[in-house]
Design brief:
Blueprint: H1 46-53, H2 59-102, H3 109-113, E1 118-123, E2 129-135, H4 151-161, H5 173-185, H6 197-206, H7 213-229, H8 232-242, H9 252-260, H10 269-276, H11 282-285, E3 290-292, E4 299-301, H12 303-320, H13 326-334, H14 343-348, H15 351-355, H16 366-383, H17 387-396, E5 400-403, H18 407-416, H19 420-424, E6 454-460, E7 466-470, H20 500-506, E8 515-517, E9 522-523, E10 530-531, E11 534-535, E12 541-542, E13 547-549, H21 550-555, H22 560-569, H23 571-581, H24 593-598, H25 607-614, E14 622-623, E15 629-633, E16 639-642, E17 648-649, H26 653-669, E18 688-693, E19 699-705, E20 710-716, H27 731-746, E21 759-764, E22 777-783
Parallel strand pairs: 1-5
Antiparallel strand pairs: 1-2, 3-4, 5-15, 6-7, 6-20, 8-13, 9-10, 11-12, 14-17, 15-16, 18-19, 19-20, 21-22
C-alpha cells in the first residue's frame, strides 16, 4: 500500500489573511454549481486601517481627539447661546433706557434762577402789582449774571471741578468710567467724582441724589438735555449761582460777601481759588469751618488750613491747564488773604459791624398766611404729601403767588382789629367783657391771667375771591399762626339759611309766607322733654304753639321751625345740600337735628367757610370755594394753579333772590337791625344778613351781605367760656363796627341780583299766600314762580297770628 501524497509546503502569509486563487471558499460563501462567483468588496475595518498605516494609534490619542471634538462643540454652542442672550438683554436694556429717557423730565435753568424765594403779590387800586412778601427760602442766594463773573473766577471752578467742561456734552465718560472702576478696584484711596458741572447742577436743583443706577441714568439724560438747550456760559452761571459754599451761603456772590466782604467781580485769583475749593465738601472746606473743643467749649477753626490745601490744588489746576501763567501761579500762592472773620478785616471795615445788626424777620401778614396755607393744601392734594412738606415746597419752590385781596379793605380791617374796643364800641369795653381768672391761686384775678375776647373776620366777593381776612385782635407777632378767620367755631343760628331754610326753599317745600307751627317737633324718648325751644328776649326758653310765617320765623330766629323742616325734609337731604351745594365743612356726625337746625356742630366751621356758603344768596345762586389765590406760577412762568375754577350754579336764581329778600328782612325788621347802614347821600344801603348765638353764649356770629361783597365775623374766647356781659353785645353791631364805615365809603350804588321771574306782591296775613283782591294785605313778600300760591278766598279771623304779630311773648332773639 502506498502512502498518500503530502500537500506541498505553503509559504508564510501576512498577518492579514487574504483569499488565494487556489483556496476553497467556505461552504456558506460557495457559489452554486456552474454559477460564476464574484469577490465581495473589502470592508473598512480596523484591520484594514492598520494595514494602510502600517501602525495602530495609541488609545490616549484617540481619547484626546474625541474630547477635543466634544469641547469644541460645547464651546461653540455656549458662544452661540451667549450671543443670543446678550442680544436679548441688550435689546431689553435699550428699550428700557429709551423709555427711561422719555420719562425723565427736563430741568429748566429759568426755573432754577427763580427758585431762590417765593413771592406773594396783590394788585393795588390802580392795578399795579405790589409785593406783599418774599417768603424767605431756607437757602440764601444773591444771583448775578455771567458777565459779572471774571474769567479767572470761572476758570478756577472749571479746572477744579470739571476740566473738560467746555468740550464734553454734559457727561465726561472718561471720569465716569474711572470713578466706577475705582469704586470696584480701589486704584485711589479716596472716591473719585465722576459728575460734571452740569450733572452737579442738576443733582443740586432736583434734590435727586439717591445712590442707585436709576438716579445716575436720570442725571446723565438730564445733563445731555440741558447741554442741548443751554450754552456753556448759561450752565456755568446757573451752577455758580446755585451751589453751596457752607452754612447758609449759596451762590458765589453770597459766598464772596460772606468770606471776603467783596463782590464776585472784585475777587483775586487767590480768592477765586479759595472759593472754588469749597464745593467739594462745603461744610468741611469752607474757611470758617470749626469744631467745639470738648474741654473748653471754644470754637476751634480748622477751615483755614483745609481750605488752603484745596486752594493750592485749584491753583495748580489753573496753571497746568494754562488759565494762569507761572508767575501768576506763584503770586497767587503767596497772596495774603483777609477773611471777614479776622480782626484785620474788622479793623479795616468798622461799618460792617453796624450793618450786621439786622432786624429779625417780620412775621407774615394774615393775607400771606392764608395764601401759603391755601397753596400748601393744593400741593398736599396734588402730591399726597404732608402739610410740613408742602410748606417746605412753597418756601423753596420759587413760586409767584398772586392774591385776590383788596389792599384798601385789608388795611382798613386790620386797623380796626388792632384794638378790641373798636369792635365793641357803643356796647361794652375790652375789660368788662374779659373772663377774669385766678390761675395761680393768689386770690387775685390779674390781667395776665384774664382771657380776653378774640375775633376773626373774612370778606369775599361774589366770585369767591377773598378780599380781606384778619385772624386775631392786636398786632400780629408770629408767622403762620392761629387765625380765627379759619378756626372752626360754633355758628349758632347763622347755620339756618344754609341748611334747613335753604334746602326747603330750593325744593319748593316752603315759600315766603308758608305758615308753620312754633312747637318743638322732637321728643326725647328717654326724658320725654320736647326739643328745641326758642330763646326769648328775657333769656328764657319758650314756644307759642301758634302758626308763624316763614319770613317771620327767620326774622325772629325761631329754633322750632328749622327743626320741624329738618324732621319733615330729612336730615341726610339737608346735610347733602349744605355740603355739596354750599360747600359747608360739616362732618358725618353733623347729620343730626341739632347741628342742622340750630348750628350745634360736632367741631364747628370757620367764619370763612360760613361766609363762603352765603355768597350764593347775593349773586343769583353761584358758588366757588373761597380762595385768596388767583393764580400761582412757577419760576419759569408755567401756570401751576388757578383759583375759582369751580364757579358753578349751586341754587337756582329764584331761590337765591327769595332767600336774599328774607335775609334783608332780618336786617330791616329782625334780629340784625343793628347792622343797618346809611349811605353818604342819606339813602339806606341794601343789606342782608343773619345773626348767630350759641345756647351757652360762648359764640357770637354774624354774616352780612351788601351788593358788592359778603362778609362775616366771629367773636368769643379762645377757650369755651360764656361771654361776660353778653347781654350788651349784638353780633350785627360788632360786624358794623368792623366793616360798616368801609361799606359806606366804598358803596358802588348797585343793588342785589334779582331774578326777573320772582314775584313781588303783598302777602295775605291770613294764609301767607299771595294776597287776592279781598285779602287783608300784610308785608310785601317774594315768591318763586314755581311756588307762588295766590289766596283765592278764606275766612279771615283777624287774629294776626299768621304774620307773627301776636307772638311777642315767645319771640326769639337769635
Amino acid at each position: 500500500m502506498t502512502e498518500p501524497n503530502k500537500p506541498a509546503k505553503k509559504a508564510k502569509r501576512p498577518a492579514v489573511h487574504t483569499q488565494s486563487s487556489g483556496r476553497k471558499r467556505p461552504a456558506e460563501h460557495a457559489a452554486g454549481t456552474g454559477e460564476k462567483t464574484r469577490r465581495p468588496a473589502a470592508k473598512h475595518t480596523a484591520s484594514t486601517t492598520q494595514k494602510k498605516s502600517g501602525k495602530a494609534r495609541p488609545a490616549w490619542q484617540r481619547g484626546l481627539r474625541r474630547a477635543g471634538s466634544i469641547l469644541l462643540t460645547t464651546t461653540l454652542s455656549f458662544l452661540l447661546i451667549l450671543v443670543i442672550t446678550c442680544t436679548i438683554v441688550g435689546t431689553t436694556l435699550v428699550v428700557y433706557v429709551l423709555g427711561f429717557m422719555e420719562g425723565t423730565s427736563e430741568v429748566s435753568i429759568r426755573e432754577m434762577e427763580m427758585s431762590y424765594s417765593t413771592f406773594v403779590y396783590a394788585e393795588d387800586k390802580n392795578g399795579e402789582l405790589v409785593t406783599l412778601y418774599q417768603v424767605p427760602s431756607s437757602i440764601k442766594r444773591i444771583p448775578i449774571e455771567i458777565e459779572e463773573i471774571p474769567q479767572h473766577v470761572r476758570d478756577a471752578f472749571v479746572y477744579a471741578e470739571d476740566e473738560r467742561f467746555y468740550v464734553h456734552e454734559g457727561v465726561d465718560y472718561k471720569r465716569t468710567a474711572a470713578a466706577m472702576a475705582n469704586m470696584v478696584l480701589h486704584f485711589w484711596s479716596a472716591n473719585q467724582g465722576g459728575s460734571t458741572i452740569t450733572q452737579q447742577l442738576i443733582k443740586n436743583i432736583t434734590g435727586d441724589n439717591a445712590t442707585n443706577a436709576e438716579r445716575k441714568i436720570r442725571e446723565i439724560f438730564r445733563a445731555m438735555q440741558m447741554e442741548k438747550s443751554y450754552t456753556k456760559d448759561e450752565i456755568l452761571a446757573a451752577y455758580l449761582n446755585y451751589i453751596g459754599f457752607g452754612g447758609s451761603a449759596n451762590g458765589i456772590e453770597m459766598a464772596s460777601l460772606k468770606y471776603f466782604g467783596k463782590h464776585t467781580s472784585e475777587l483775586t485769583v487767590a480768592e477765586a481759588a479759595c472759593l472754588a475749593a469749597i464745593p467739594k465738601n462745603p461744610e468741611r472746606l469752607n474757611p470758617f469751618a470749626y469744631y467745639v473743643d470738648d474741654e473748653t467749649g471754644e470754637r476751634v477753626n480748622y477751615g483755614h488750613e483745609k481750605n488752603r490745601e484745596r486752594q493750592e490744588y485749584v491753583l495748580y489746576q489753573m496753571y497746568s491747564n494754562g488759565a494762569i501763567s507761572y508767575d501768576e501761579y506763584q503770586e497767587a500762592l503767596a497772596e495774603h488773604i483777609i477773611f471777614t472773620d479776622s480782626e484785620e478785616y474788622k479793623a479795616l471795615h468798622p461799618e460792617d459791624e453796624e450793618d450786621s445788626k439786622i432786624e429779625p424777620d417780620k412775621p407774615t401778614s394774615w393775607v400771606v398766611d392764608a395764601a401759603i396755607n391755601e397753596f400748601s393744601e393744593v400741593l398736599m392734594d396734588k402730591y399726597g404729601i404732608s402739610k410740613k412738606e408742602a410748606r417746605s415746597r412753597v418756601n423753596k419752590g420759587g413760586y409767584q403767588i398772586y392774591t385776590t385781596v383788596d389792599l384798601d379793605m385789608q388795611a382798613y380791617v386790620e386797623e380796626r382789629y388792632m384794638d378790641m374796643n373798636n369792635l365793641l364800641a357803643g356796647m361794652a369795653t375790652t375789660n368788662n367783657t374779659a373772663h377774669w381768672r385766678d390761675l395761680n391761686g393768689d386770690g387775685v384775678a390779674s390781667e395776665d391771667e384774664a382771657q380776653f375776647l378774640q375775633s376773626g373776620f373774612c370778606a369775599i366777593n361774589y366770585s369767591g375771591e377773598i378780599l380781606a381776612t384778619v385772624g386775631a385782635i392786636g398786632e400780629k407777632t408770629a408767622s403762620l399762626c392761629t387765625s380765627y378767620a379759619y378756626e372752626p367755631q360754633q355758628p349758632g343760628s347763622t347755620i339756618k339759611p344754609v341748611t334747613t331754610y335753604g334746602y326747603a326753599l330750593s325744593t319748593d317745600y316752603i315759600h315766603w309766607g308758608t305758615p308753620l307751627r312754633d312747637y318743638p317737633p322732637i321728643k326725647n324718648p328717654a326724658t320725654g322733654k320736647l326739643w328745641p325751644t326758642n330763646y326769648s328776649s328775657g333769656g328764657g326758653m319758650s314756644y307759642t304753639g301758634s302758626m308763624k310765617n316763614v319770613y317771620y320765623a327767620l326774622q325772629k330766629s325761631y329754633n322750632t321751625i328749622p327743626a320741624l323742616l329738618c324732621k319733615e325734609l330729612g336730615r341726610i337731604e339737608i346735610y347733602n345740600f349744605a355740603t355739596s351745594n354750599l360747600g359747608l365743612d360739616l362732618v358725618q356726625k353733623d347729620q343730626d337735628y341739632a347741628p342742622l337746625s340750630v348750628g350745634a356742630l360736632t367741631y364747628g366751621i370757620s367764619i370763612t367757610n360760613l361766609v363762603n356758603a352765603y355768597m350764593v344768596y347775593g349773586n343769583g345762586g353761584y358758588y366757588s370755594k373761597a380762595h385768596i389765590i388767583s393764580k400761582v406760577e412757577s419760576g419759569d412762568g408755567t401756570l401751576v394753579y388757578t383759583g375759582g375754577t369751580d364757579y358753578n350754579q349751586a341754587v337756582d336764581e329764584e331761590t337765591s333772590t327769595v332767600m336774599n329778600k328774607l335775609l334783608q328782612n332780618v336786617v330791616n325788621q329782625g334780629t340784625a337791625t343793628a347792622a343797618k347802614i346809611t349811605a353818604k347821600d342819606g339813602t339806606r344801603i341794601p343789606l342782608a344778613g343773619k345773626t348767630g348765638t350759641t345756647s351757652d353764649w360762648c359764640d357770637l356770629t354774624f354774616v352780612g351781605l351788601c351788593p358788592d361783597f359778603v362778609s362775616g365775623m366771629w367773636i368769643g374766647y379762645e377757650q369755651n367760656y360764656q361771654i361776660q356781659g353778653h347781654g350788651r353785645l349784638k353780633s350785627a353791631g360788632i360786624w358794623k363796627n368792623i366793616i360798616g364805615d368801609y361799606i359806606k365809603e366804598h358803596y358802588s350804588g348797585n343793588n342785589f341780583f334779582v331774578s326777573d321771574s320772582v314775584i313781588e306782591a303783598p302777602m295775605c296775613t291770613a294764609t301767607g299766600n299771595i294776597a287776592g283782591s279781598s285779602c287783608p294785605k300784610g308785608i310785601t313778600g317774594y315768591w318763586k314762580s314755581t311756588n307762588a300760591p295766590v289766596c283765592s278766598g278764606h275766612s279771615y279771623s283777624g287774629t294776626g297770628e299768621a304774620d307773627g304779630s301776636s307772638a311777642a311773648t315767645g319771640a326769639a332773639t337769635d
